[in-house]
Structure formats: C-alpha cells, structure tokens
Design a protein that fits this description.
Elements (H helix, E strand, L loop, with lengths): L17 H14 L7 H7 L8 H16 L15 E8 L10 E8 L2 E9 L7 H5 L1
Antiparallel strand pairs: 1-2, 2-3
Length: 134
C-alpha cells in the first residue's frame, strides 16, 4: 500500500471485474492469516468488494506483486530469553474517507513474537478523538 494513500469510491470511475476482484481478495484474506505484513492493505482493499473500481484492482495487484517479490516471509517465532508480554493499540480518528468512521487496532507480543492482532472499523462516527480512544 502506498504511504498515506486513501482508497475511496469515485463516482463515474471505471469498474473492475467484480467476480475476479472478489476471488482475488478472498485469497488475499486467507493468506493474510499467516502474513500479517499484508493484513492492513488487504483490509483496505476488501472494503470495496461490492463495487470494485480500477484503482482498487490496481491496489490489490500491487499486494500480489509485493508477495511475489517477498516469498517465505511469513510468521517467525524466535526463542528469546525473556517472558515479557507487550500490547500496543492505536486508533485513526475519522480515517476512512468514504464514511468518516474511525479504525482501531491492536497487537500483542509474547517473548517478542507476534501472537494476536486485529483492526476494526467502528460502527458509528466518533465526534472527537477522545470518543475514539474510549
């Protein structure tokens, strides 16, 4: 995904082949379970499965090109000498350009190894950044 690139639905833009797009995104979603480095980008492109446009297909194909260029870089668990558990969370207030809803995410590390992660779009529009954090 390009840095700070916000995909959105543009009225009058050229539509992509819906079935092909949905098959590709379904495969990428399945693959993202073992490749957390693509999870964010796949989450973004999966929001447009109902009406994919050419820009959305280009972004999905960019993910495929990245995967082709980086084989074998899935989840790796290393043995570390500590038993530290760490958790990180972040929110993006009104980050979705289509509906202005916020996105929150977290991940946890055990012994320095990634064990859980999740991002989720909020169900309602937050009126302030404090409301998003709550």
């Amino acid at each position: 995904m390009q840095v700070n690139h916000k995909l959105k639905i543009v009225e009058g833009a050229t539509l992509a082949d819906k079935k092909r797009y949905q098959r590709l995104i379904g495969k990428l979603i399945y693959l993202s379970h073992t490749r957390p480095n693509i999870a964010y980008a796949v989450g973004i492109v999966s929001q447009f499965m109902h009406k994919p446009q050419e820009d959305h297909m280009k972004a999905a194909m960019r993910i495929v090109r990245y995967l082709k260029g980086a084989p074998g870089s899935g989840i790796i668990f290393k043995r570390n000498g500590h038993l530290k558990v760490e958790a990180y969370i972040d929110t993006d207030w009104a980050g979705n350009p289509n509906d202005r809803r916020s996105i929150a995410g977290y991940f946890t590390l055990v012994r320095g190894n990634l064990v859980t992660w999740k991002s989720k779009k909020h169900k309602v529009v937050a009126l302030s950044s404090a409301e998003v954090e709550f």
